[in-house]
Amino acid sequence: MENLGKKRKGVDISVTCQKDVSPLTVVRSHLSLEDYSRRKKKSREIVVKDANCCRKSVITGVVTAPPCGSARSRSPGRGLKRKIGCLDSATRLGRKKKIEQDYEMGEVIGKGKFGSVLLCRRKLSGEKHACKTLRKGEEIIHREVEIMQHLSGHPGVVTLKAVYEDAESFYLVMELCSGGRLLDQMARVGRYPEQQAANVIKDLMLVIRYCHEMSVVHRDVKPENVLLTTSGQVKVSDFGLAMRISDGQSLTGVVGSPAYVAPEVLLGDYTEKVDVWSVGVLLHALLMGGLPFQGDSLESLFSAIKEENLEFTGGHWESVSQPARDLLSRMMTRDVSARASMDFILHRTHIEEPCKTNQKQADCYY
Predict the structure, then answer these.
(1) What is this structure's pTM?
(2) What is the domain extent for residue 116?
């Protein structure tokens, strides 16, 4: 898990892992999915102008949140008591109030491609939050704010508290997840016991299913974007690459993080099922302590993702139950029509009763 403990900025990384996926080795480079798409120019909707081309893809027919009280394109997630599109005034863009009037800024607790995350404290209450600073000039910033507001209300989505802006930046005040990133926990734990891995995947899939019910595809599911509360609750963050889609709509544009990207993304035509593949890669990393595909360049890594057959046998796989291997195989099939559905995954990771003494632990929940 050596590589899992190192921070990555955006998607500027290529990953190399040994065939037995243990230990995992990282190759730092300036390559990214953006570089790859710029060189290959395979996506018909990518305008290649600079290193941020992948993030400037225009998807036609994307649904936007309607005004309060108007009809909505899809029914909301189960049990959500709110109206889509009714933005909290504190999270609207264009507010003139300066963030320094309400918050004291602290140390940097994270960095990304488009800005940094700082610890901040609300002056009125003393409550601590995380403040994500994003430089202006990127279309995705407006989309990220809109999607976070669209998804607000679900306990598994990081809550957007307020939005501020000045001449140069936007400031997104969000709930502070003091448990840190799943990535860092993975670095400490190494290979997860199956029950612990099943719990993580179940909680994550509940959030991803909700996103899909709300017509949102995350497109960048990875342990860096999964945060934890002090009690261990899973919170999905970073919707910078997420897209709103209508029923039956497909997406184009090579975006995501190299190690977790689905093969159909590299072919330039895909659906929300890409999130299932990415969660499958994460499940592999939890169980094995390493990533499933190897490559000393993006081209070789992507070739492996598109063509290499995965075999869940030998080595550490012998200590993993067959139901767990079957689930992983269903999540990481290249046949999108055969890829596991949300309900199937949630059913297979649901712990219904304690294990009996003569049962393998994993057989109780996979």
Answers:
(1) 0.75
(2) 99-175
